[in-house]
Amino acid sequence: MKKILFAASEGVPFIKTGGLADVIGSLPKCIDKKYFDVRIIMPKYACISQKMKDMMQYKFHFYMDFHWKQEYVGVFEAEVEGITYYFIDNESLFGEATPYSRDPYLDILKFTYFSKAVLSTLPIIDFRPDIIHCHDWQTGLIPVYLNERFHQGDFFKGIKSIMTIHNLKFQGKWDIPSMKEITGLPSYFFAPDKLEAYKDANILKGGIVFSNAITTVSSTYANEIMTEFYGEGLDGLLCARQNDVRGIVNGIDYDEFDPETDRYLEYHYNPVNFRKEKIKNKRALQEQLGLEQDDKKFMIGIVSRLTDQKGFDLIAHVMDELCHDNVQIVILGTGDEKYENMFRHFDWKYHGKVSANIFYSEEISHKIYASCDAFLMPSLFEPCGLSQLIALRYGTVPIVRETGGLKDTVEPYNEFENSGTGFSFTNYNAHEMLASIRYAESVYYNKKREWNKLIDRGMATDFSWKVSAKKYQEMYDWLIDR
Ligand code: ADP
Ligand code: GLC
Questions:
Q1: Backbone angles phi, psi at 162, to 5 degrees
Q2: What confidence tier does 325 reach under pLDDT thresholds 50, 70, 90?
Q3: What is the mean pLDDT of the segment spanning 430-454?
Q4: Can you point out the beta strands (E) in 213-352?
């Protein structure tokens, strides 16, 4: 049995701020249990719900050298759907109201501690993984520590590591003198061939340099990050390691996201009966959110972190124009204040037409995916994107910019060939986006049969983990035998 440990900063069903948590909660379940024992380790944040904390069992604790102190490390365990989760407990570091702090220094501290604690915990729980699969910068120091101090003892000898980049924008950068103190790593690690980048210490860079393989979450993004525009300063390094970089597109949990059984929906439907049944969800949502009751109105949904990454400045630019069309717009999201306030403003200005829901809600998100006619995601960059995959599964037609995973998963509508699953545009330009939305509107209003065929094709796509989980397995096998 090959042993794999996922190390990550969030994971469903315990804690989620974005798509990373969906991946951590769903991919391990789809790795073949006959050959692989996949376990997960993550922080035990104080903000995890009590219900989920009640599922955890205290195992043991110890003290670890960290930042000039002996720091407490508690270890908890839980089992969900046959998968073992470990949790690292430290209330002073993981005690905030959200997993990530407003103060980036606190994040550097807590995730350096976490990375070190993960490795220190393994011999005690007697789980020696063949591979530690690290996700995003928060776990970037694990391959570095594996290389530095932990490679001496027999236990750690030969453990391989993988660094998966879910978002290159976030790298965990801090000044070198402080990072030396926090990490305890010797000075020579802070050189340009290791952790140093543009005069700072860069944790993700360390992960990329020291891991045995690097992956990201779509093949287009894998190519994009080797260019200056998308490379976030690390394109040179990624080009240098291009033989070790793979793009494996994400899947979604087809049990969790299924319009036929979804526990948040009052009205269920499937690829056969969506023409009659999906609309019932739209009616219900219009009523729940105080939108004008109109079956026919073209309803556009957005469920997102409200950040620049997601293309909200394009929407800001043409929102007034768009609101003069025969449409309804439903937004669910939290994030940058400027976008939260922008949507609140449009909700006030176009009441009954625009509904801004500035909070986090699983329930409303599922209702939006099920109720809307189209789903808008005009991202500036998008490593993979799960929302458009959920939209496809729910027969809601995605309108996306052709970047990263959006390009790999949404096939543009071609009215001459009767093909495609959504609408897309190339340039990061507000009026190009508006033209795509209006093209979608015109098909919806004037060619209803074509629109329904678009939905047919979208619902027939398969973005479960079936294919991609196999690709991870192949990589695990290859790396272990190497
Ligand atoms: P990212 O990871 O960049 O935020 P993804 O598209 O990969 O983008 O994943 C976003 C996930 O977070 C989706 O499952 C989406 O439904 C969910 N999500 C985002 N914002 C909210 C919100 N306000 N309420 C509920 N779910 C949300
Ligand atoms: C990141 C990316 C998103 C991706 C998710 C899961 O948050 O922004 O595109 O789908 O990670 O890999």
A1: -125, 135
A2: very high
A3: 98
A4: 213-216, 245-247, 298-306, 327-335
Pocket test for ligand 1, best of 165, 365, 393 (most atoms within 8 A of CB): 365
CA 449 to chain centre: 34
- What was the pLDDT predicted at 203? 98
CB 55 within 8 A of CB 276: no
Residue 18 and residue 32: Cα distance in Å, rounded?
Answer: 25
Torsions phi, psi of 25, nearest 5? -80, -15
Does 118 score more than 80 pLDDT? yes
Does position 154 have pLDDT exceeding 90, yes or no?
Answer: no
The 10s digit of each residue's pLDDT in 240-268 is: 999 999 999 999 999 999 999 999 999 99
Look at residue 482 in the predicted model and tell me its pLDDT.
84
Phi, psi of 406 (to 5 degrees): -65, -40
Nearest residue (by CA) to ligand 2, atom 5, is 19
User: Given the structure tokens 């694990």, which residue do they identify?
Assistant: 142
Residue nearest atom 7 of ligand 2, based on CA coordinates: 19
- Nearest-CA residue for atom 15 of ligand 1: 387
SS3 238: helix
Measured CA to CA in angstroms, residue 70 lies from 65, 73, 180, 213 at distances of: 5, 9, 17, 33
Distance between CA 70 and CA 67 in Å, rounded? 8
- Model pLDDT for residues 331-384, shown as the tens digit of each residue: 999 999 999 999 999 999 999 999 999 999 999 999 999 999 999 999 999 999
With bands split at pLDDT 50, 70 and 90, how would you rate the model's confidence at 429? very high
Which of 17, 24, 27, 166 has the most ligand 2 atoms within 8 A of CB, as the residue to mutate?
Answer: 166
Residues with CB under 6 A from ligand 1: 18-20, 22, 303-305, 332-334, 360-362, 365, 384-387
Dist. CA 306 → ligand 1 center (Å):
10
CA distance 345 to 266: 30
Tabulate helix, strand, coil % of the chain (nearest 5).
40, 25, 35
Domains of the chain: 2-251+466-481 (3.40.50.2000), 274-462 (3.40.50.2000)
Ligand 1 centroid to residue 305 C-alpha, Å: 6
Residue whose structure tokens are 């768009």? 322
For the cut 80, the answer to whether the pLDDT of residue 151 exceeds it is no
Q: What is the pTM of this model?
A: 0.97
Do the bridges between strand 2-7 and strand 69-80 make them parallel or antiparallel, or are there none, so unpaired?
unpaired
Ligand 2 atom nearest the C-alpha of 382 is: 9
C-alpha neighbours within 13 Å on the C-beta side of residue 294: 11
Which pLDDT score is estimated for 423?
98
Q: What percent of the chain has pLDDT over 70?
A: 100
